[in-house]
Amino acid sequence: MAPQPQTNRPLTQRRFFHLRLLPAFFLAFLASQYLLWSIVMPPLSLSWPAQTVPEFTALEPGFTATVEWFLSAWRPKPRIPPRPGVLKPPSPLEQPIRPRAQVAIIIDDLGFVQEATEAFWELEIPLTFAVLPWGRYSKTHAREARKRNQEVILHLPLEPLDPQTDPGPGVLRTDFSPEQIRQQLRANLAAVPGIIGVNNHMGSKGTQDRPLMQLLMAELKQAGLFFIDSLTIHTSVAATVAHEHGVPTAVRDVFLDGSGVEAIPAQIDLLIEKALTAGSAIGIAHTRPGVAVALQSAMPRFEAAGIELVHVSTLVK
C-alpha cells in the first residue's frame, strides 16, 4: 500500500511560520495603542498648557506611563516665573557708576609773600588761590595762577573779634556805613584781576554781622561771583545770607595747616574722611614754607582713597 500524504506540516515549519507573524502582530499592537491614544488625548500643540498630565484612571498603568513619556518628550517646557520679591542681581555692566568723592583745596594769603607762594606753581593739581587785595604781589600772583589754569578768588579782609588783630588793607568793618562798605568792596574786587569768587580773610566778627553780610552778598550777586565761607567762627551767618541772596556758596571743612606743617598729613586724612562721608569737602592751607611740599607728599593719600581733586567752583551751590 502506498503511504498516505501528510496533511500537517512538521513542527519546525509551523514554528517558523509563527515567528514570521510576530512583526505583524507587534505592528498591529502599536497601531491599536496609537489609535486608542489619539482618541483619548487632545492634539498636542505649542500652546499646550503648563499643567500636570491628567490621570488616566480608566487605562492600564503601563499605557498611562507611555503617554506621560510621550508628553514629556514633545511638550514645550513651561516657563517658571521668578518668585515675588526675588530680584535678579544686576550684571557688572548694569551696576550704577558711583561718583567719586571730590576735594577742593584753597591756598590763602597770596599777594604778600613771594618765595612760599612760588612753591605752589610746581604742583600740577587743581588749586584755588585766594589773593589778598593791595599786596605787593597781588596782581602778579593772580596773573601767574591764571596762566597755570588755576582759579583765583579775592581773599576779602573782614573784621576780626580781636581789635588788636590787623586784617590788612581793604578790611570791611561792622561800623562802616553802607556806602563805605560798597566803595571799599568794589575797590577790593577791582584790585585782583581774574577773580571768579570771594572768601573771607579773618572776619570772626564781620561774618556774624547780618547787615554787613547782606550788603556783601548783594554786591557779589550783582557781580556774578560766588562766596566761600572760611568759617573762622562757627556762628557765622555768611553762607546762610549768601543762599538768601542767591549767591552760590560753600563752607570750609578743614584747615590743613592750622596746627603747623607737621600736622598736615593728619588733617588731610580728616579732609578725606569728610569727603568720603559727605561726597565732597573743602580744605584751606596758607602760603607758608613747607606747605606746598606737604601737599605734594599727600597726593598718594588722595589717590588711594579714590578722591578727585577739583577747583572750588565745582563745589559751590
Note down, in words, how this protein is organized.
This protein is of the alpha/beta class and 317 residues long. The protein has helices at residues 11-40, 61-74, 115-118, 138-147, 178-191, 210-223, 238-244, 264-278, 291-297, 299-304, and strands at residues 102-110, 128-131, 151-158, 197-202, 226-229, 249-251, 254-255, 280-286, 308-310. The termini are far apart. Helices cover 38% and strands 15% of the residues. Helix 5 (178-191) crosses helix 6 (210-223). Strands 1, 2, 3, 4, 5, 6, 7, 8 and 9 form a 9-stranded parallel β-sheet that branches. The protein has 2 domains: 19-42 and 53-76, no CATH class; 102-314, Alpha-Beta Barrel (TIM Barrel). The model is unreliable at 44-59 (pLDDT under 50). The chain has 10 helices and 9 strands. Helix 6 (210-223) links the parallel strand 4 (197-202) and strand 5 (226-229).
Q: What is the name of the CATH superfamily of the largest domain?
A: Glycoside hydrolase/deacetylase
How many angstroms separate the termini?
Answer: 136 Å
Major sheet size, sense and barrel closure: 9 strands, parallel
The low-confidence runs, each spanning 5 or more residues with pLDDT under 50, are 44-59
Helix content: 25-40%
State the name of the first-level CATH class of the largest domain.
Alpha Beta
Helix count?
10
Number of β-strand runs: 9
Structural class: alpha/beta
- Using the alpha-carbon principal axes, give the shape: elongated
Order of helices and strands: HHEHEHEHEHEHEEHEHHE
What name is given to the CATH topology of the largest domain? TIM Barrel
Question: What is the beta-strand fraction?
Answer: 5-15%
Radius of gyration: 45 Å
